[in-house]
Amino acid sequence: RKEVEQDPGPFNVPEGATVAFNCTYSNSASQSFFWYRQDCRKEPKLLMSVYSSGNEDGRFTAQLNRASQYISLLIRDSKLSDSATYLCVVNRGSGTYKYIFGTGTRLKVLA
Amino acid sequence: EAGVTQFPSHSVIEKGQTVTLRCDPISGHDNLYWYRRVMGKEIKFLLHFVKESKQDESGMPNNRFLAERTGGTYSTLKVQPAELEDSGVYFCASSQAAGYEQYFGPGTRLTVT
Predict the structure, then answer these.
(1) pLDDT tens-digit readout, B20-74
(2) What pLDDT is attached to residue A51?
(3) CA within 20 to 30 Å of A4's CA: A15, A72, B18, B45, which one?
(4) Judged by CB atoms within 8 Å, which residues 2-61 of B form the interface with A?
(5) Structure confidence at residue A96 (pLDDT)
(6) Calpha distance A54→A61 (Å, rounded)
(7) Do A44 and B101 touch (CB under 8 A)?
(8) What is the pLDDT of residues A32-54, one digit of tens each?
(9) Checking DSSP bridges between strand B10-13 and strand B108-112, what pairing results, if any?
(10) Nearest to B59 among A43, A98, A103 (CB)
(11) Strand partners, A58
């Protein structure tokens, strides 16, 4: 079983739709959580950090549920430019600061 | 502010040859990381430098891989001798402090034939 699990998709949604992605992690000691966006053949780019209290950045909302060990990303009013792969990333902390990546969820927003 | 840069962007070498990848982190970032994505798999950690010291090299696949960061600035990752399974995209990332958000370079696409 992978340490960070994501539904690979693809999620095909019309412009303006709301779409949600979930990610689960297996290591309960994990300390930091992030969503990155990766366009085809490009590097991962930080979308947002994820906090227990939840956080919002414009059309994007991220939530963390430590008890159930899952992270979510909600995108409202999808734009064509949101089409990308969304990577769930976990940082174990506690002496190691390496990122553990999920395989990513592909999103395609259709006109 | 300049981002993380990597060189070369692409490299095609034959099995048995040597390749050296270079990463320049964001200025002032003491923490530098190497990751690799092989086709069809998730991005995986290779190692972490704090300044010139290796903090964590648990992801290095074998002793054909050698990473250095002399002077605590740029880093190199040498693969010698390269094998077919080394093909993939090698990403470098840097962060202001350990545990902070990491910023990734554009990657080096390595193809071993």
Answers:
(1) 999 999 999 999 999 999 998 999 999 999 999 999 999 999 999 999 998 889 9
(2) 84
(3) A15
(4) 31, 33, 35, 41-45, 48, 55-56, 58-59
(5) 76
(6) 7
(7) no
(8) 999 999 999 999 999 999 988 88
(9) parallel
(10) A98
(11) none
Structure tokens at A64: 């963390």
Are A87 and B106 inside 8 Å of each other by CB? no
Candidates B99, B106, B74, B108; CA nearest to A38 is B106
Interface test with B, best of A1, A91, A96, A99 (most B CBs within 10 A): A99
- Stretch B17-22: mean pLDDT: 98
Count how many residues are written for chain A. Answer: 111
How far apart (Å, rounded) are the C-alpha atoms in residues B87 and B66?
Answer: 16
How many other C-beta atoms lie within 10 A of the C-beta of residue A87?
25
Q: Which amino acid is at B32?
A: L
Task: Say if A2 is an interface residue toward chain B (CB within 8 Å).
Answer: yes
Contact between chains at B58 and A98 (C-beta distance less than 8 A): yes
Residues A92-107: tens digit of each pLDDT: 877 778 999 999 999 9
Radius of gyration in angstroms for the set of CA atoms belonging to chain B, rounded to a whole number: 13
CB B103 within 8 A of CB B3: yes
Rg over CA atoms, chain A:
14
What pLDDT, on a 0 to 100 scale, did the predictor assign at position B75? 98
The DSSP secondary-structure symbol of B55 reads E
